[in-house]
Every structure is written in structure tokens, then in C-alpha cells.
Amino acid sequence: HPNRDKLVSLVELLGLCHTILVQTKEGRMVYQASSPDELALVNAARYMGIEFQGTTIDGIMTVKRFGQSTDYELLNILEFTSSRKRMSVIVRDSNKKIRLLCKGADTIILRRLKNGSDKTVLRTLQRLEEYAVEGLRTLLCAEKEISAEEYKEWNREYQEAFESVFDRDRKLEEVSDKIEQGLEMVGATAIEDKLQDHVPQTIAKMREAGIKVWVLTGDKIETALNIGMSCALLSKTMHEIIIDAPTEAGVLKSITSAEVALKAHRDSALILSGDALTHALRPHISPKLMKLAKSCPAVMCCRVSPKQKALVVKMVKENQPHATTLSIGDGANDVNMITEAHIGVGISGLEGQQATRAADYAIGQFSFLHKLLFVHGREAYRRNALLVCYNFYKNVLFVVPQWWFGWLSSFSGQPLYDPWIYQLYNVVFTSLPIFLYAIFDREFTEPSVLMENVRFYAVGLKSKLFNGKVFWKWVSYAAVQALAICMIGIFSFAISGKENGHQDGLWTAGAYMYAAVVILATLELLMFTFTFYWFTLVATVGSILMYFITLTVLSSFQSLELSGLNGPFLANSSTWFCLILLVGFTYMSRMAMLRLRDLSEQAKANLTPSGSSVYLINLGKNASNGDVNADLDDSKVELVDCNVSRRTSSFAFSQEAGHTPQLMSASRGRKLTISPTSARALKKGRPRVGTVPYGKLLQSYDEESAVIQSLESFEKKMRTDSSRGLRNAMVNSRTAGSP
């Protein structure tokens, strides 16, 4: 082949320019690489006849070159860094020639070529663009021959920089850049970087839940766009806003133009290059960039270094202080980004374990993020939010009765609770139930419910369970209960007298208040518990019984002020009557408040004009038998109320003959069948869904004129239209077996 020597030089470069270690396992040679890309290139060289066999302690690289063993003396390794975006090795071959072999990003290598405008270089760059569009990761390879004198002078400077104590990395980079000039292009490589399974579905669910997804990659813009398409971050209908200006003025101009373009194309994707990002991350430009990025459904940053990844996360944190950032990566170049974010997730894979070691959570595949967020993350937020609020609630409930009592005792300092039993409240009486709740409670027994219905994730995104309003509701609720406990205890025990003229005393009232606090705090936990196990019920009952057992034990000691209290306290009918009265009143008032809240939310939903009700009407057997003029009064009409939002929902109507018309909602479609006798219940409030006789349906919706008109127009059309297509589109065939 006329280009055989050049092809051999390219394969030889791939077999030598790397940092791979060779190990022998069970008689087989195994490569240990720092990245899968490097491993793929060395294996490719091995497949094409140049097999790397290892490096000795003396720095001799052994290569089997088309069946013949050849040695190369490894003189220097100029390692890859995030700022260099390339790596080089300097070797002395068997002919005593000193050669520099280099591979790296095309934009970096191109500016170091001595013949960058050569036709071969231009054709190679054109091929690289084609590879990038296909989603392949590309590298440019180059080399040059170095004279012995030039190498000797350069190596002296390199050793001085290498041995430098201060600013060593910068000096090494400057010296390396000095020798990596005047290169000659050898060729280019392209590697397919396959996505893991279920990546598009995971990203789609995250975006559906309201999570803003940004992709930070070291690939070229064309490669990144292809990856964005394959992982469902981008779509063909999206307008692409590309900011690739190399100067600060150009970046500002591009951002201004992008803001204008965004007004015409709301569904736009923002794509930034690494060079543009260098200027865009500056303090006076980053707020403008952040404002633009917030308006775009998708953001991609290409050709970014690990430091730039961390700076992007920092920019989001500074400009969106209330937002929570999560970074996920699988390699060492993602460590800076992972440690900078509020939450870091590392993927354990071919890229090594650096990301997982630096992360808060480690997973095996990207798709596992779906369950980590929507099941474990959502449930952890729910349990921890209620755990924090409940702990404040039970302590306010415990302490505030003494504050209320202070108003009756002129704040004399007289305690309500015995000091011995006072210390056991958080340690013994109320610790185990909340502990078990925080570990074992699950709102849904099947994780698939949370994974498929991402709307449940909104409680965390919108901080519905833990915010200032919720916190003060819990505190106020506890304070009101504490007032009821104090007043009932004081006026039923300490003030009221017995038939013999004696009073129970303050310690009896205090024992009652303590019992009421323990019972209310323990039973309150059951109000928001979804999963009941035998041990949680045992812990609930046991916590209440433990108080009475402790009170009995302490009252048996003559030296304590509680001595002899247990008998009169338990034998007093006022104790049990007041406890039952207090618990009943508390939870009946709570249920009433919950009911009022539900009615208020329902009233707001009925008055909200942002949604509309769409009804799909399925006729019964009379109409499906082919009689278009069938009597509809006795047929059954099935309503599907989708309560859809006009902006976010989409619908598809199937007109296939013999099948039920399918109405699909992207947001909140619901379908339910109820008995005809339940039609009367639909008179109250807004109709939901159901299967009812058509005649009764019209009687039930006197207030819903729009529904009546739609049903009447539908009836007229079914009676008069002889079109076969309309019947096939709207009539439900019971024999078709459709859902």
C-alpha cells in the first residue's frame, strides 16, 4: 500500500504512547489501563500487528512488531492533564533516533502542527467532524524527530522543573509545551462510547420530575450533540443555541443574541464550548449565563476540563443559593465536580474507582439513579422531614405545659414533673417508635409506584414537608395540645376536690399531664405512619406501658416525692376519663382540620382555570352491535376525566376499527368504574369519572352545562352521522378485548 509507512507509524504510536501496565494472569497477558479509551487504542494496535509487551524497570518498552520483538528506550512521559488535554512520550528506537509521540484533542494538536494547512490535515479534520457527528470520541496523533543536542538541552530544563519545589506543575507544563511544537500529523482515531442501558429513560424521568439536567463533557460539540440526542436530553425539534466564541466580547455578544433567539424559540438547548466557558465563568458574566441557562430546557458544556466542571457547579450554587446540586460521574476527571456539588454520586465502572471514593453515594449503573432519586431519595426526605418536625413537636408538647402552668403559679418555679421521671422522656418513653419509623416506614410497599409516578417526587423539590410554614404548624399544634393538657390536668386534679374533701395534689396532676404527653406524642406518630409492622405496634404500646411501669416502680420508693402516688393515680376515675377525653378531642379536631384542608384544596382546584376536563365516551353493547340509532337512554356511558393541563399534556386518539378509542395523558390521566347506584354521589361537587346510565347522567349534571352540551351534541352526531369511521373511532367493542 502506498501509505503503508504512515499507517505503520500511526499503529506504532498507539502501541507506545500510553501509560499501560502489563500483568500476567494464568499465562495470559492482561493490560491495566487508567482509562478504557487508552486500553481500546492499545488493543487496536495489538490487533493490527504491533503488540505492547511491557516496560522494564530500566525503562525499556518491548513491542512485538509484526512478530519480531523490538525494544524502545522510554526517555520521558509528558502526562495528560486537564489543562494540557494531551499526552506525549519521548522514546529512542533501535536506530538511535529520538522521537516524540503525541496524541490529544484535535483543537490542541492542530495548533502545534507545522503543516496545519496541509491538504491531508484538512481531509483528516473533515473526517473527524464526520466521526464526531456520529457520536465517536476523536483524537489526533502526531510525532516529530528530535536531535540529540536539542533533546539534551530540553531534558536539562525538564529535570530542573521536575525537581522544583515551588510551582512545579506550572513549570513542567511550560517545559513540555516547549518541546511539543512543530509536530507532524500521523493520523486520527475515533472510539465509540456506548451509553449504558436505560440512560434515556432515566434522564426523561428526571426532567419530567422537574430536575434540570446539565451535561458536562470533554467531547467535541458535534460528539456531545449526538450523545445528547441518544440519551434523550436533546430532541430534533429543539433549537440549538451554540456559544463557541474564544473571546470575552464574543461570549457577551453570543449571550445577547441567544436571549433574543430564546424569545422566538422557547424550546432551546444551550451548548457551550470550553473556550467560551473560560470567559463565561467570570464573575461579571456568569449571572447573565445563568439567567440564559435557566430558560433553556437542556444545557451542554463541551470540551471542558475537570476544573471547569467544578466551576460550573460552583456558578450554579452561587447564582441559585436555594437550589440543590447533584453531580454524577464515573472517572477521575469528575472528582472535582462531585466534591463541589451538594450531593455527589459516583458510578463504579471501567473508568476506575476514583469517582466512587470521592462521592457520597456509589452506584453500578447510571440507570440506578432512577431508584436512588425517586424511591430512596424521596422516602429519605419524607421520613427525615417528619422526623425533624416530630422531634420538635414532642418536645414542645412536653415542655410547654410547664410554661402554661407558670401563668397559674405566677412563674414561681414550681415544676410539674418529678425530676427522676423527667429525664426519661426522650430516652425511654418516646425514642423507639420514631426510631423505627425513620428506618422502616414506606409510603408505598411497591417501589415501582414511586418510580413510575414522578409527581410524588415534587414533595421534595417544592419543600412541601419541611419549610418554615410547616415547622410553625407543628409547633403551634403542640402548643395548643399542651394548653389542653395543662388546663385539664390542673382543673381536674389539683383544684377539684374529692367526696371526702381531699384533693389529689400537684404531683398527681403532673403524673396525669406526663401520661397525656406520652400518649399523645406516641399516638401522633401513628397518624402519619404508612407501614405497620408487628414490632412498630409493640414499640408504640410498649412506650406507653413503660411510663406506667416506671411510675409504679418509682412510687414504691419511700424516699422519693412520688412515693405512694401510683395507687391513687391509677384508681382515680378522673385519670382515665380525662385521658380518653383529651385523646378523643385532640384527634377529632385533627381530623376536622384535615377535612377542612382537603375541602379548601378541592375548592381551589375547581376554581383554577389552568386545566380542563376531557371526557372519552364509550357506549355499551347497544351501540357496538352496529345499530347507530340505538337508544342511548339505557346504554352506559363511561367517562374518563383527565383533568389535563393545556400546556403539558398530549393526547392520541386511535381510530383503528374494533378497538376502544385510546386517550393518553402525559400528566394526570385517571380512569375508574363505579356502579350506577353511585350516580347520585356525582351531584355533589365536580364530577370525576364513572360508568352510569346515560339518562341519570344528564340528571346528575344540571350544573355542568358544558358537559351536557357536549353529551347532547355527541348523541345527535351518533344518531345522524352514518359515517363508518366515526363509529369505529368512538364506539367501544366489548368483544375486542381492549383494556
What are the salient characteristics of this protein?
single chain; alpha/beta; 7-stranded antiparallel β-sheet; 4-stranded parallel β-sheet; 29 helices; about 50% helix; about 15% strand; elongated
Describe the structure.
The structure is a single chain. The protein is 49% helix and 15% strand. A 7-stranded antiparallel beta sheet has the order 3-4-5-6-7-8-9. Strands 10-13-12-11 form a 4-stranded parallel beta sheet, with helices on both faces. Helix 15 packs antiparallel against helix 18, helix 18 packs antiparallel against helix 23 (534-555) and helix 22 (506-527) packs antiparallel against helix 23. The two termini are 65 Å apart.
Distance between the termini: 65 Å
| Overall radius of gyration | 37 Å
Oligomeric assembly: single chain
Number of separate helices:
29
How much of the sequence lies in strands comes to 5-15%
How would the global form be characterised? elongated
What is the arithmetic mean of pLDDT?
76
Q: What is the helical fraction, as a range of percent?
A: 40-55%
Structural class: alpha/beta
Query: Can you summarize the main beta sheet?
Result: 7 strands, antiparallel
Spatial strand arrangement across the major sheet = 3-4-5-6-7-8-9
Number of strands: 20
Given as residue ranges, the uncertain stretches (5+ residues, pLDDT < 50) are 608-711, 720-739
